UniProtKB/TrEMBL annotation:
InterPro entries: FDM1-5/IDN2, FDM1-5/IDN2_XH. Residues 46-79 form the Factor of DNA methylation 1-5/IDN2 domain. GO terms for biological process: gene silencing by siRNA-directed DNA methylation. Coiled coil: none annotated. This is Factor of DNA methylation 1-5/IDN2 domain-containing protein. It comes from the Eukaryota. Pfam families: XH.
Length: 79
């Protein structure tokens, strides 16, 4: 019974770590998008957690030269 409790505690700890990591990545993505996108632009969400890359590409093309826009869009989508 103690082994099951230990396993449960280990899994619970791992779940909390993973959740904290996801929340940190979310905050970084939001802060990064503020630098590239202006307030009148919106982000499209396909599924919970998936980012619509075309929206980032369109916004970056409007703000940066073509080559740099592709790089910036890829950077933002990979966060």
């Amino acid at each position: 019974m103690q082994d099951v409790a230990d396993l449960f505690n280990a899994l619970l700890s791992k779940e909390r770590e993973s959740n904290d990591e996801l929340q940190k990545a979310r905050r970084v993505l939001i802060e990064g998008s503020k630098e590239v996108l202006c307030s009148s632009q919106t982000l499209g969400i396909k599924r919970m957690g998936d980012i619509d890359e075309k929206t980032f590409q369109k916004a970056c093309k409007a703000r940066f030269p073509t080559e740099e826009a592709q790089i910036k869009a890829a950077e933002l989508c990979s966060l």
